[in-house]
Design brief:
This protein is α+β, with helices and mostly antiparallel strands and 226 residues long. It has a single domain, classed as Jelly Rolls (Sandwich), CATH 2.60.120. The protein contains five helices and ten strands; from the N terminus they run αβαβαααββββββββ. Strands 1, 2, 3, 4, 7, 9 and 10 form a seven-stranded antiparallel beta sheet that branches. Strands 6-5-8 form a three-stranded antiparallel beta sheet, with no helix packed on it. Helix 1 packs across helix 5. The longest helix has 17 residues. The relative contact order is 0.27.
């Protein structure tokens, strides 16, 4: 990749930021996530939305200066944070996320997700998989079978994905992946017997109008002066 986040993002639909968070910052956020999940009595569904409402630590994380610099290069100066969720694949989680785009879940203007590893994400424990450049294909109809009870009501069938175009994105804890909401992505199952936790925060271009989202209760603008 070149040094231009925007150039690479426009071409591939994602960029990787190495060492966005220090090991100490990762430790703090994971400990705080455990407290939130315990306080909310969240069972093992694997996902909890609303972390920035539950704890100020996650709202602070959303405005991380290094991350904001990258987002402003990609999106523009009017960046708005919408929400952040925790995705917790624990030691016994042996299923991966199916292939999908995020856009069908919110529609409106395009959104930008930031996937941050709170544990090393490897091939054996659930790292992300993407189809580079697939965001340029536009909004794809999602007709995959969602009867397995694992969520993801909008999904594609595996056979709709050309395996020769798929790449895996193993990253270290503290690394971040920013991706477009039309990028085709999935994750591998966690077969390691160890945790694979990640934070996923969502942002938008504040110059674009959207309907009110009931899941964006902690939304705030990140001004161009920051």
């Amino acid at each position: 990749m070149t040094n231009s986040y925007k150039e690479n993002f426009n071409r591939e639909g994602y960029v990787v930021i190495k060492s966005l968070l220090s090991e100490h910052e990762v430790h703090i956020l994971k400990d705080e996530a455990v407290k939130v999940l315990n306080d909310k009595q969240v069972n093992n569904e694997g996902v909890y939305l609303g972390m920035a409402v539950a704890s100020p630590a996650f709202k602070k994380f959303a405005a991380n200066p290094k991350l904001v610099t990258a987002l402003k290069e990609i999106i523009g100066n009017d960046v708005v944070f919408l929400s952040v969720k925790i995705v917790f694949k624990n030691a016994g989680t042996d299923f991966g996320s199916p292939w999908h785009q995020d856009y069908p879940y919110w529609e409106g203007s395009h959104k930008y997700s930031v996937w941050v590893a709170l544990d090393d994400a490897r091939l054996d424990n659930g790292c992300l998989r993407v189809v580079p450049g697939s965001h340029l294909l536009g909004d794809i109809r999602h007709n995959g079978d969602a009867s397995d009870g694992l969520g993801f009501g909008n999904r594609l069938n595996e056979e709709e994905i050309d395996p020769t175009k798929v790449i895996d994105l193993p990253v270290a804890k503290g690394d971040a992946i920013i991706f477009h909401d039309l990028l085709l992505h999935a994750s591998r199952p966690n077969q390691s017997g160890k945790d694979r936790w990640a934070l996923i925060s969502t942002y938008k271009d504040g110059t674009q109008e959207d309907p009110p989202y009931n899941w964006a209760k902690a939304a705030f603008p990140i001004s161009s002066s920051e």
